[in-house]
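Chain A, query sequence.
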Amino acid sequence: MGATGTSSTPDGSQDGRYGSPDRRAGAAAGMAPDTPFAQGQTPLRPDSSAGASPAPSSLGHGPGTPGLPPPHPHTGEFQGSLRRMTNNLMEMFDQMSSKSVLPSGAGGSAIGQRGDSVATIADLESGDPKPAGDAESMNPVQMRRLTTGIVDVLRQLQASGGAGAVEDPEIVVARHRLGLGKDDVLLPDNVSELSLDDKLSLISGGTSTSGKESYSSLNSHTALLKGWGGLKTDEDYKGDTVHPWYVDLATHTSSLRDGDGDATPKPGADDGDHGVPTFMQKQRKINIWGTCVAVIFFCAFFFYVGIRIKYTLGLGSLLWYGILVLAVEMIGGLAQMPYAVCLTMRVVNCRPPAPDEKGVVRTLAPYHIRVLIPCYKEPLDVVSKTVMAALFATVPANCQRTVYLLDDGRDPEKRKFIHSLRVPNAVYVSGRKRAPGEMNGKSANINNAARALYPGDGAAIPLTEVLCVFDADQVPNADFYQKMVPMLDGGQDVGMVLSPQTFYNLNPEGDVFNHANVHFWDYTQPGYDALGLISCTGTNFLVRARAFADAGWFPEWTLTEDFALGIELKRRYWQCRYVQEYLAIGEAPDDVRNCFQQRSRWSKGHFQTFFSRHNPVIQSGLSPLMRWMYGSVILAYFSAFLGTPLLMLVPMITVWFGSFPIVINFWAAVCITVYYGATLLLNYYTHSLGHLKSMWFTGVSNCILWYAFLKAMYRSTLGRYIDGSIVFKVTAKGLQRMGALPLRDVWMAAFFFVTMIVTLIFGLIHYSRGPASTPLVISLIFMALNLVPNYLLLQYALFRRPAFFNIVCRVCMLLMTFLTIFGIVLVWVLYPRSYNFPAAVNSSLVFMNTQRVGALPNDLGVSWRGSALTQEASCVVWVAYNSTAFLLESGPWDLEGGWVTGMDAGALKATLPIAFSTAVMAWGYESYTAAFSEVGAADDLLSNIRWGSDYLLKTVQAVGGSTYILSRIGSVAEEELLWRRLEDITAPRPAYVVDMAKGASDLGGSVAAALAASSVVFSGTGDTAYAATLLAKAKSVYAASTANLGYYSVQDWNISAVYNSSTFYDDLAWGAAWLFKATADDAYLSDVYDYYVKHLEFEAAVSDFKFAFDWDNVFWPANVLLAQETGGATFLTQSELYLKSWICSNMAANYTEKGRAYNAFSASLGSTMNTAFAALALADVLGDAQADTVFTYRCWGLAQVRYVLGDSGRSLTVGVGKNPPTRTQDRDAACPEAPQVCNRVTGLLSPEEDTHVLEGSLVYGSGRSDDFADVRDSTATRVGIESNAGYIGALAGVSQLDDGMWELCLQKFGIYRQSPICGSFINV
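Chain A, predicted structure.
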């Protein structure tokens, strides 16, 4: 069911907020082989081989260090004071911050494992790497604030000229190494070896938000900007001037423009004509393993869809439900296809060339990098770090850079901060006028600055003009420009260079919102790069100014301006490069409200794009592949907000209503295994085992965020007309995040969680009390699976202390993995097995052959049986009367043939069960003639019917003016006691008859019914002479039975021990009904009504409440037969009442835990099979006029037949199916081979299995339980012809049902049921 497969929001584009771009973040990926760092170094602290001074941590400070100045005499005293101030500051910071942003052993550990240029967060913050996960390492935020405070104190001391003011020892070392005096200004280009913490701390001294201006102190200590990257200090510079690009043109020494001054070559021109090195051009390579995964997924998807359509949608009235679920599954599969394609290719030169032998990075062209940092209401301590890192990061040797802080919030503190830097290439931009109804403030803000920088015709902009965009919290690494800018040399059509994102406050072990998104950064985006798709991610990227202008700047009509920009660039044939290194670090929202608000904003922007004229599918300039790749982005959202709730609802619907959208069969098991196995392979295909958890978080986040996506679609479509225009909401940062309650975001998850918990409890109760429906079991497993993401969200919202929450996530990941695999396995273990009904029909007739006696035919097909009781061709007849008997003076009767009746009577030949069995077999043949012919059992069945009717013709004879009917052959007590082979019985056995003049209406009515039914059968086969003989005998027996009413067992008291009759009017109605069917004589129908009424008047109180169908109770089957023949409303009503009592389990019938219906007054499996046959026969009578009722009857009959064939856990038919009974109470089958003695010890009491397999025999069963005991001397292992008679007809009835009928029937096993027979009820 899928489950549907999960995929992250596939484009990876950055939102329009000014804050953290964590949508496509990842923990850092692998370090480039060509950029190693020495031990103790970070990417922000290059070693001396790269042309820089050694890191401060490698410089000595002791008095013995050669060439270094001695320590200050007051250093020890000052350090003591410093320690005291540090403690005070620590206490202050602890009071200000109530929680750790990045716990030890959490974020830093995972980032460090990725081994890229970000290294660990401790490296970035402190410049002194410690082992990730060190329990004693200080929180980075605390370290940063502490350092800032200490530097403030130092500056205040020096500014005041107070005693004891001492310059930072590392600054002293740096001055000495650079040859600067104490009064000289220390500048960034000269101290590039300083750690980021040093640099940011020295600057952050001027960013106090206490309301006091401390910027004057920057004149001495924060003059680090002199000469760094070409920056010059200017004491008069105030920072508000935005110069157009051509003002700086004179600083360029070369350009990519043609020498004659004409326009630069258009994008897409042959790069080779302009001296682009081959190694800089994009070089693609097929990813063999990724291609294999993609091919497997594509094949599995189409195989799954084909099989589902052909074999699993036979849902009848629920077809629409199955189609709906399959459609959603297909959307999920289609949404994952672009990701599969991305795995097939990769760019092999995705990293810039290494520095030259002098450690200098140069580009082919002298680019001017204009860094745009848009902000709105972000705190200054967040923005200042980004600005300073953007200024500090080293640019290629022949390039220059200008940083623009684009403040839409018009914050005086930010303005003062930029002014305090006093460098011309740090510009504060603000004061733009917002347009009415402005949607995307970030786009408008950047566009405002871009238009000021590049007025006029965009085609005139040199290709050397490059814009770099950082979100306000994205702090670039020191080597950001050196690794990004050279990628522009790959061709004049390279319009954009992208890099991944990561976050310092990321907890990768508990990243339920998938901020890291390794799925995108390490797998999808590299594929986009190889395929040529541009997926701008909103921050940490470069874009040529000409390309940006060509695309019309950032689109302002959508919240996802980055995604839309990528489409516009691609439409204009610009290309993109992707640097697979984490070169900047930011802050991810970690509270639920901001996470939901952020993801909602992204999805709104995508929906805006697709439900507008900007839809990439209909845009010109895009190839079919690009249209598909861009167009499929929306499918990820559809897959999430359609698939997630639907797949949560499906198991609950199954539990409560029994409706399952898939026909569970063999082919369903195959396609589910293949497709979901391929989906797991696709989703968990990684280059590193460390990525597996992030891949899992991708699916979890989609399950968590589906409701946000759904609301976003509404707001982007109907909602904008109903609720008004979409409003941009900024992601809160820092202290702004406090107090945001998540109730509006988690209520849906809480609702589903509680609902699924309740449903799971009721479902388990329902399962434990049976029957075990395959869809029910599978639904319970996947409901537990669906609980996990909802639980994680609620746990995250309520209590997410990392030490605890990380363990929870780890357990949940293992649990979901186990449940997914277990669910697939269960489909195989529990899918409804198809039984060989034709073979079962033939086997059941084999049993009837094993019970034959007399001179057996040579083609009987039972090798271990021989002729027996042939001496009964000349039986001495006794007239039974009460408990005595007297010899009938008529001479011997020929009573050879028939069957031994079995059960507890053993070899007794009792006429009543023989007549009953013959009539029911004839009824089965009449009802399912075609079915018996199709399965090849017609001849065998006709042979058995004739065998029975031949015998019954002999059982009624007139002697001396009286008519006598045979009651039995054999002594009841003797046959119950003795265990002997039939072939070993050679002594004559007494035959007991009763005088019909003294009353034998029950026995006579049954014999008449059997003979009339047989005449109908053979009349239909063309044996009219034999049919006429049978009919004539039936009429005479019926006449004798009606002439003198009474019970035969009154005369033969001994028979009452095994076949005691309790009514006779029902037997007469039964006989009259068959005679009416055979003759179409209304006189017999009139008799039916007469005896029917008398039965209701005199016998119903003692029999009808049993709702039984056996040799003693034929009132209910007579109604079904008459409903077949007449269609009378009375007979139909009574028949439906009879079946309702069994099906609805509210009268005489009940159910075992595994679904077998039993009658409290007739608990044998034979009685159940008789009723199953009646249900199937009545269903054929009703036809399409009552389709729901017919369906219910057939399903119920099929369920009972399947139970005895194996749905009970084992077969209850000897020699058929799995683990059938092997110890039956049949003398010939159980006794050892002759000449060994057969007696009660070697037979009944023997623990050995039957010597001969009594194939096709239906055992009595365990009554009211599913616990069958295969023990010979128990009631459960009794066998007899009366049990198999109705079973034969039921097997034939189910053999003609449509394939897949049972799978449809399984849709009805819910807790709440609506039945045309039982009405609405709760069944637990």
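The radius of gyration is 45 Å. The first helix runs from residue 75 to 96.
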